[in-house]
Amino acid sequence: MRISTQLCHSCLGLLCMSLLLLACGPTSEPTAEASLAGTPAASAKAGNLLDGGWYLVAGTYAGQKREESKPFQFKLFGNGQFAFLMKSEGGAWDYSSTGHYELDGNIYRETFEFSTNSAFVGVTTEWEFELKGDSLFIAGPTKIINTDGQEAPELAGGYNTMQEVRVRAR
Question: Could you tell me the fold of the domain covering 2-24+41-168?
Answer without folding.
Answer: Lipocalin (2.40.128)
